């Protein structure tokens, strides 16, 4: 039974870093023994009608952390990242007496979660690095967080250089527009109001 559970969790993890769970999956893979693995569960309310902007931000950080674990060389079947959305697992929220989201909990391989197995979101925040530190304290699994690169500044600069270069190339025979004060004033106003 244990090998079957671990195999199923590994299969799900190979497809997605964070495993979505409903009430039945939660009871079978997280609560029910036997277990020789730790599970980090994010309880959340991501549906648009819930209007939980904090849930979306926390979910982005959680995805960064789970992807960092999934694609690290230390990845193993000792730790899994899961998510229970209120709309898919309201019974789980009731069973655990939860009335707020997002909440992060660690379910250890043996026994029930202790008080320290609930992440102190209000005091610490939900940055991926903070979650990784908390997980290291609870499980001895150290996750190095890798954030995806942000190329928006580079792309904007390349676009600006290509536009200016294209304009100069098209007007190469008549560059008098460079000395037009009205044109530069208009460009400055556009830049000023766009920032």
Automatic annotation (TrEMBL):
Q: Specify one Pfam family.
A: OST3_OST6
Bilayer-crossing residues are 151-170
Q: Does the keyword Magnesium apply?
A: yes
Gene Ontology terms describing biological process: magnesium ion transport; protein N-linked glycosylation via asparagine
What membrane topology is annotated for this entry?
Answer: Multi-pass membrane protein
* Record has Cell membrane as a keyword: no
Q: Which family does it belong to?
A: Belongs to the OST3/OST6 family.
Q: Which PANTHER family match?
A: DOLICHYL-DIPHOSPHOOLIGOSACCHARIDE--PROTEIN GLYCOSYLTRANSFERASE-RELATED (PTHR12692), TUMOR SUPPRESSOR CANDIDATE 3 (PTHR12692:SF1)
Q: What is this protein called?
A: Tumor suppressor candidate 3
Protein source organism: Phaethon lepturus
């Amino acid at each position: 039974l244990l090998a079957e559970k671990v195999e199923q969790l590994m299969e799900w993890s190979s497809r997605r870093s964070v495993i979505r769970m409903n009430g039945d999956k939660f009871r079978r893979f997280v609560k029910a023994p036997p277990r020789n693995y730790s599970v980090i569960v994010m309880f959340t309310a991501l549906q648009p009608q819930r209007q939980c902007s904090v849930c979306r931000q926390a979910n982005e950080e959680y995805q960064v952390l789970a992807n960092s674990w999934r694609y690290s060389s230390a990845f193993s079947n000792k730790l899994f990242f899961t998510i229970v959305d209120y709309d898919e697992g309201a019974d789980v929220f009731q069973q655990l007496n939860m009335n707020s989201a997002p909440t992060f909990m660690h379910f250890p391989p043996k026994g029930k979660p202790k008080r320290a197995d609930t992440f102190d979101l209000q005091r610490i925040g939900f940055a991926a690095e903070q979650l990784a530190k908390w997980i290291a304290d609870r499980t001895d699994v150290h996750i190095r967080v890798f954030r995806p690169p942000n190329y928006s500044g580079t792309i904007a600069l390349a676009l600006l250089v290509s536009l200016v270069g294209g304009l100069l190339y098209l007007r190469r025979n008549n560059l008098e527009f460079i000395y037009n004060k009205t044109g530069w004033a208009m460009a400055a106003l556009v830049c000023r109001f766009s920032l």
